[in-house]
Model the fold of this input.
Amino acid sequence: MIKKLTRKSELAFQQGRLLLIIFCIYTLAVKFIGREPIGPNESKVGFAGLNKWFRDLVNYNSAWYSISKFFGILVILTAVMFGLLGLIELIRRKNLWSVDMNYISLGFFYVVVAIVYFFFEIVAVNYRPVMTGDVLEASYPSTHTMLAICVMGSAMLQSGRLIRDTNKRFIFNFAAFFIAFMTVLARAMSGVHWITDIIGGLLLSFGMVLMYKSTYIRIEAMKELEARKTYERLHADRRRRR
Done:
C-alpha cells in the first residue's frame, strides 16, 4: 500500500513538473512569437493570428463576464471554507505542528497560488483584448482559470479524506468540477481573454494541482506508515504481556 502510494506520488510529481516546463516554454512562445498590435491601444499580442480569430469569434459578452465573476466568487468561498476548517483545527489542537499536515500543505499551496496570481498581475505578457477600465490590464495567463482549477482541484483531493460517504463525496466533487468548468468556459466566452491566456492558465493550474497531488499522496503515505508502526508496536506490547 505504501509503495503504491509512493509510486502514485512520484508519477503526479513528474507529470506536474512536465506541465510546468511546457507552460514556461509556451509562455516564452506567447511572449516572442507572432506578435502583432491587435490589442487595445495597439498593444502587441503573441500568436496574433490565432488570438484575433478567437477574439472575433466570441467578442465581448457582458453576460458571460458576469457569469465568470459569479463562479469566481464560489471559488473564493471554497478556499475560505477550507481555510476556516484549518483554522478550527488549529484552535482545537492549540499547536500548529499538531494540525493535520494536509491542512498545512493546503495552506502553503494557497500561498503559492496567491504569489503566482499577483506575479502575473504585475508582469504583463499580454494585455486584455478589451478594456474593462481606464487602463490596459494584464491578461496572461487567465488567473481566473488558474484559481478555479487550483482551488477546486485541491478541494476534490481533500474530499477523499474529509467526506466518507461515497454519494456525498460524488456530489461534492461534481459540484467542484462544475464550478471549475463553468469558470473557465465563462472566462473564455466572455471575450476578456485571448485564447492563449486560457491555454496558459490551464497548463499552469494543472501543473500546480499535480504537484500538490504529489504532496497530498505523500502525506497520506506517511500517515499509513505511522499507523502501521503504531499497530506493530501495540501488537508487540500485547505479545510481551502474554
User: Anything to note?
Assistant: Residues 195-241 form the longest helix (47 residues).
